[in-house]
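[SOLVED] Predicted holo structure with 2-oxoglutaric acid

Edit: marking solved, answer below. Original request kept for reference. I posted the sequence and ligand SMILES and asked for the 3D complex as structure tokens.
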Amino acid sequence: MIFVGHWQADLNVGLFVRCQGENCKRYVAINCILVIYLKVCVMSAEKHKLHYTSLNRKTGDGDGLYEVDVHASVEELEHLARAGYLVRDGLFQGEALQKLQKALDHLEENEHDRFKNDPSQERSWGHIPRHLMDKDPVFLDLLKLPPVLSIARAMMGPLVRLRGLSARISYPGPVLHETPWHRHLRVICKPLPPWFSEPHALDALIYLDDLDEKTGAVSIVPGSHNWLDREPPNGSYEPVEGELEVRVKAGGAVLIHSNLWHRGLPTLAAKRRMLILSYTPTWLRRSPHGGPQPDEGLTQAVLDGDDEESHILLGKGGYT
Ligand SMILES: O=C(O)CCC(=O)C(=O)O
């Protein structure tokens, strides 16, 4: 939570910060800086091109040259590196958004039996379907989603793979649906060994419903992806210093480094649907969550095909 006064900065572009404090006037200067800062965070993507040369002649498409049409400005990438997040409004709109909502509703219906909402528990993460690309072509179409994949390649190099596509559906009800503070790549130890490989992944948290008081915002701690000496408070739902509540409209996304501390705030009065689309360097493993991939999932046909980029994205090759 950022404390900057008795007002809410609503930039009318979907990002809200809840503010509290004693004396508004004292914070006018801070507020102005905050508004400029937030505008940088949410400005629409200004593209640029990036060129990589692979220094591994066995990998890549012949000459080892990769051009990435990055769906972000250089400043936005710097912000992502430093703060660990980037807000994308209107990533999906109109029919494209409806297709995702419908596909997730369909999957929810199909997998409802697997969702256990134990009434004896005070809290739950909600319903978390996994392996989405294997289950519906609408989700498989996200494999090369340029506004996310291009940023993944800009941050981690040309050779990235899918870590997973999962969903989280939370509902209002007697069992409170919210998540504790967490990060997604829990592979860090203390002390850090001399050859420690810092884990990186980009997660696009794609919201299919408006984030508001009814559904619950997502809260993040800017810069926390760089904290290699501590973990988020275990199982905690309590506020953390520097916490920032982010809200987007349906179809918007919050791109985060996988190890940014974050939590989904309680879903109090309306169903909330979101997707998590993740990419890592090719040599990292896919997400272990959700067990083995479904037999005869849709990605198998892609792996049987001859598109090398898709093979690499699905974990076949792209490393030596
Ligand atoms: O629901 C959210 O906003 C975040 C969910 C999340 O990070 C998770 O399910 O791992």
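OP edit: Confidence is low (pLDDT under 50) at residues 1-43. Thanks to everyone who chimed in.
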